[in-house]
Predict the 3D structure of the following.
Amino acid sequence: LAKTTQPISMDSYEGQEVNITCSHNNIATNDYITWYQQFPSQGPRFIIQGYKTKVTNEVASLFIPADRKSSTLSLPRVSLSDTAVYYCLVGDYRGSQGNLIFGKGTKLSVKP
Amino acid sequence: DAMVIQNPRYQVTQFGKPVTLSCSQTLNHNVMYWYQQKSSQAPKLLFHYYDKDFNNEADTPDNFQSRRPNTSFCFLDIRSPGLGDAAMYLCATRGQGNYEQYFGPGTRLTVT
């Protein structure tokens, strides 16, 4: 499984766009990039997943450059409720050995 | 709503006294996972079931066992809990061929 590197923490203010970048230099051809969000005392929650270029859903956007060695999670206009830990995971999770190995994650603090 | 349910949400046990945590799902997913998450750390995979096939992570202590009597239920048994086993235990499921894992709310285990 590809190792990921993310900033340990980030601060933002309400209404701002937040971009969290994840490095995954040894990503494999079959690997997908997945982001999870975790609030205190809750289980992680799937946010978004992508393979290349750009993916957008109602919550976030995921930008993946052509070399796929990094990815950026973009949260538009964050609110206080977006304060959470965000995990970047890379791997091919579909098969019987498709397991999630969590890195340290990025603790996002949104201030008023 | 289809979901992953964990009972109890909070569990207190005594040092060395066996304890069982339970997880049920209404998603009919064939893959089920158990994670351990200690304070301010990322979730750590303990083991998973792919259908009935049990897969143990190499560094999961022998003190931890699991049972999956049917598709819907999965149990985590801690045979002799130590103080270091105090943590949040997360159950998750995944459908075959899918990437997204669905996490339960977790059971917070306290060992006295």
About this structure: The CA atoms of residues 3 and 26 of chain B lie 6 Å apart.
